[in-house]
Structures are given as C-alpha cells and as structure tokens.
Amino acid sequence: MSFTQLVLYEEEFKRINDVLTKLYSETNAKVIFLVDRNGQLIANTGETENLDTTSLASLTAGNIAATGSMAKLLGEKEFTIIFHEGYRDNIYISIVGRRVIMVVIFDERSSLGLVRLRAKKAGDDLTAIFDELLRKVDSKTEEGVSPFAEITDDDIDKLFSE
Amino acid sequence: MSFINYPAREINCKIVYYGPGLCGKTTNLQYIYKKTNPDAKGKMISLATETERTLFFDFLPLSLGEIRGFKTRFHLYTVPGQVFYDASRKLILKGVDGIVFVADSQVERMEANVESIENLKANLVEQGYSLDSIPYVMQYNKRDLPNAAPVDEMRKLLNPNGVPEFESIATEGPGVFETLKSVAKLVLVELKKGAGGQ
Q1: How many Å is the Cα radius of gyration of chain B?
Q2: Do A96 and A37 meet the contact criterion of CB atoms below 8 Å apart?
Q3: Contact assignment for B196 to A160 by CB distance below 8 Å
Q4: Mean pLDDT over all residues of chain A?
Q5: pLDDT at A143
Q6: Quick one: fold of B3-193?
Q7: Is B58 left (phi over 0), alpha (psi -120 to 50) or beta?
Q8: Among A103, A104, B109, B133, which residue's CB has the most CB atoms within a 10 Å radius?
Q9: What mean pLDDT value characterizes chain B?
C-alpha cells in the first residue's frame, strides 16, 4: 500500500484519552470523539452509551471530505472548522494535525466560544501526539514488528469457514 | 488504508462497492445487512435521495471474527453510481483497502459498466492507487434477468485480467456473500504482505 497505515498503541491511546478527558471537563461537553479521516473511530469520551459512534465517525469523515472538496473549489486549502447548530445539541468539528478529526458535541451547558478556545489547545496537544505516533509507526514498519506478519493463510481461512 | 488499534485489539478495513447507476451496490449491502447476525453488524446508513438513489454513500460496519486475538472489522461503503456524482465517488475511495466492482449484466448496460470501470481506474490513479495492485473482485449482478449478457462476453469486456469473479442476484442473495468473502480475504492477505509476512 502506498500510504502509511494508521496504528494506535496503548501508550499514545492513554495520552490521547487524557487530552480528551481534560477537554471534556474544561468545556462541559456531552461527548468528544476523534476520528481518522477515513472514518475510523480512534477514541471517545463522555456520554457515549446511547450514541452510535461508529456511524457518527463515518458520517463525520464524509462531512469533512465533502467540505474539503468544497474548499478546493473555492481555492481554499481546507476549512479547518465546521459547526452545526441544533435546537438542543451542537457539533463542533475541527481538523487536527491534517490527519485526524476532533468532534465535540455540546448543549447549553457550554458555549461555542468556550469550545472553540479549549479545542484549539487540545488540538495542538493532539497534533504533537499524532506526529510522534506516525514516527513510531514508520520506524516499527521498518523493523517488521506488526502482528500481521505472523498470520497464516489458515488464520484467514478460518475466519470464513462458517 | 487499514487501521490497527492495539488498545481495542481491532483491525479496521474499508471496502468500497463501485459500479454504474442502478447496478445493485446498495442492494448488495442491504442483503448483507439483512442476513448478518445482529451482534456482527452496526447500523446501515444510506445517504440517498427521495427516490432512493444513493446521493453520497451507504455505510455498513461488519465484524468478521478474530484473527490472532484481533477483531477484524470491515467498513463497507457504496459510491453513488450516477455519472454526475463523480466528486463524491472520489471522496469515498480515499483510504480504500479493497474494491468490489458490481457490473450490471443487462446487455444494454454494458457501455455503462465499461464507463464506470474507466472512471474507477482514473479515480484510483488520482489517489495514488492502481486497480492492478489493490485487492479487487468482480461481480456480475442481475444474472436472473432475461436480458443478461453471457458471462464469457462480460469477462472479455470487464475482467481481462481475470480477478476473482462472481455471478450474483443481489436481490435474492446468490453470490453476495461469496463476493464479500473473496474481497475481505484478499484485503487480509494484502495486510499480511504489507506487514512483512509471506
């Protein structure tokens, strides 16, 4: 494959979660989640029990992709922030480190200004973590440490045996 | 491109169903959704027009089981088939791990099939991929229709490289899971290769 594969390790996952938890408490948000640009959910925090986060992740990525294309048509590099205002809940979406999408869902207990201010700082922290993560993934690939080097054709066949 | 999540012990891959308008991409996903155990699937999302034509994409998350302690999850997407939705098709191909081309077997749709494959090739090249190197399977759909072209002819026209191919009737099921399994398997084999395995 011609692109760097996204790999998430325990250490970075904890650091990412710490940033999200901090942002969650600073903003009084309802839910915060991080999505890869391809729509894969990376991490989430808050009131996620009754939320279909997989679908939300995929739709968020679609939304960002569509908005990105609109930006290009206007000669913009990208729109780094999208905001949806609802009757009860609002969604604040921002692109972090060009690769990851951060979504903050909040209601009247918070405000757009507060979310925007705090999300920017959290975005900077996350960018640093993902930069490190990508470096780590690249170096690990060279060493051939991925567990998938070990899978056999049998393992794959078993998955489809029923 | 696949996503390996160590904390969740998960591997996520993206499969895209491509093909001309009304060839049965959404129907494939609907059938898979209908026949899959509720534990193994998420909600199916369809961004469609009022007349049920796909506007942006359909999305179906599926769980296939475990490999070496890792849950394998496949995210299935369809593209809108209609010619004028090309900008949307390009977006959905981003980060794709495997492709199913759903061909409409009706004789009068052959030109649309060819046009759609050419469009797929061009859009993949734009993303830095090539149809020759990405996991890719061919499905000849609507085999039950009286005006279906012979498979031999379709192969010559649409599958000269001889990628795995399947005859299907997506509305009723034959061929649907065979196609999915085949592309999923190719994706996992590719992953293994990418990870340095043999």
Answers
A1: 16
A2: no
A3: no
A4: 89
A5: 46
A6: Rossmann fold (3.40.50)
A7: beta
A8: A104
A9: 94
Q: What token pair was written down for A147?
A: 């567990």
Contact yes or no for A57/A100 (Cβ under 8 A): no
Each residue of B17-41: b (16+ CB within 10 Å) or e? bbbbbbbbbbbbbbbbbeebeeeeb
Backbone angles phi, psi at B24, to 5 degrees: 115, 25
The chain A residue lying nearest B47, using CA atoms, is A59
Q: Which of A2, A33, A40, A153 to mutate to test the interface with B (most CBs of B within 10 A)?
A: A40
How far is residue B189's CA from residue A30's CA, in Å, rounded to a whole number? 40
Token digits for A76? 């913009």
* Domain spans in chain B, listed from the N-terminal domain onward: 3-193
* CATH domain A10-159 topology: Beta-Lactamase (3.30.450)
Q: Which two tokens stand for residue A96?
A: 């972090």
Q: Answer yes or no: are the C-beta atoms of A45 and A19 closer than 8 Å.
A: no
Is A69 at the interface with chain B, CB within 8 A?
yes
Q: Which amino acid is at B9?
A: R
Q: Which residues pair with A33 in a beta bridge?
A: A44, A103
Rounded (10°) angle between helices B86-93 and B110-126:
50
H-run or E-run covering B132: none
* B195: DSSP letter: T
Whether the per-residue pLDDT at B191 is higher than 90: the answer is no
Token pair 């990418």 is found at: B194
- Nearest CA-CA distance, residue B107 and chain A, Å: 33
Query: A5 and B184: CB-CB below 8 Å?
Result: no
> ipTM score here?
0.82
User: What is the pTM (predicted TM-score) of this model?
Assistant: 0.90
